[in-house]
């Protein structure tokens, strides 16, 4: 079972600590400008989806001995216009550096997003998740 600890710091500012003791600052000030001093909670969900998929993707490509040099994922999400502002779709754009086989990369992304990633799996079927990629050699 996963377990985190969320601590209220002040105003609308929190720290979240995972089961391994790693923390992240979450939230904003309560002033009229809403200065974000930490990550927006909704964007934590996007980070979780991207990092979960990346973890599996890297593992698959390494097992296939693909020459992966670097990876970053640009993740965007569209939310409902009214409360509770639920995500309706999420898109992952994978930017891979290295002479990686495009067919193997596409299959690895599919396996990651559709089979192994627990975060994306938890969001479906209510949230549509799409992806594309580019390879930079």
Structure, explained:
The protein is an alpha+beta fold and 137 residues long. The chain has two domains: 1-39; 41-136, GMP Synthetase, Chain A, domain 3, CATH 3.30.300.20. The protein has three helices and six strands; from the N terminus they run βββαββααβ. It has a three-stranded antiparallel sheet with strand order 1-2-3, with no helix packed on it. The protein is globular, with a radius of gyration of 17 Å. The protein starts with a strand and ends with a strand.
Task: Set down the secondary structure blueprint.
Elements: E1 5-10, E2 12-17, E3 23-28, H1 41-63, E4 70-79, E5 87-97, H2 102-116, H3 118-123, E6 128-136
Parallel strand pairs: 5-6
Antiparallel strand pairs: 1-2, 2-3, 4-5
Tags for this entry?
137 residues; alpha+beta; GMP Synthetase, Chain A, domain 3; 2 domains; 3-stranded antiparallel sheet; 3-stranded mixed sheet; 3 helices; 6 strands; 35% strand
User: What is the typical, i.e. mean, pLDDT?
Assistant: 95
Indicate the overall shape. Answer: globular
Instruction: Please identify which CATH superfamily of the largest domain we are dealing with.
Output: K homology (KH) domain
Which regions contain 5 or more consecutive residues with pLDDT less than 50? Answer: none
Number of domains: 2
Number of strands: 6
SSE string, helices as H and strands as E: EEEHEEHHE
């Amino acid at each position: 079972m996963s377990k985190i600890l969320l601590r209220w710091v002040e105003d609308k500012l929190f720290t979240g600590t995972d089961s391994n003791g790693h923390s992240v600052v979450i939230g904003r000030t309560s002033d009229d400008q809403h200065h974000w001093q930490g990550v927006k909670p909704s964007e934590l969900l996007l980070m979780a989806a991207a990092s979960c998929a990346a973890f599996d993707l890297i593992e698959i490509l390494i097992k296939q001995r693909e020459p992966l040099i670097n990876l970053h994922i640009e993740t965007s999400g569209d939310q409902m216009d009214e409360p509770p502002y639920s995500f309706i779709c999420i898109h992952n754009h994978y930017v891979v550096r290295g002479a990686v086989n495009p067919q193997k990369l596409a299959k690895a992304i599919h396996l990651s997003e559709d089979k192994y990633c627990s975060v994306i799996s938890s969001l479906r079927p209510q949230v549509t998740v799409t992806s594309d990629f580019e390879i930079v050699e």
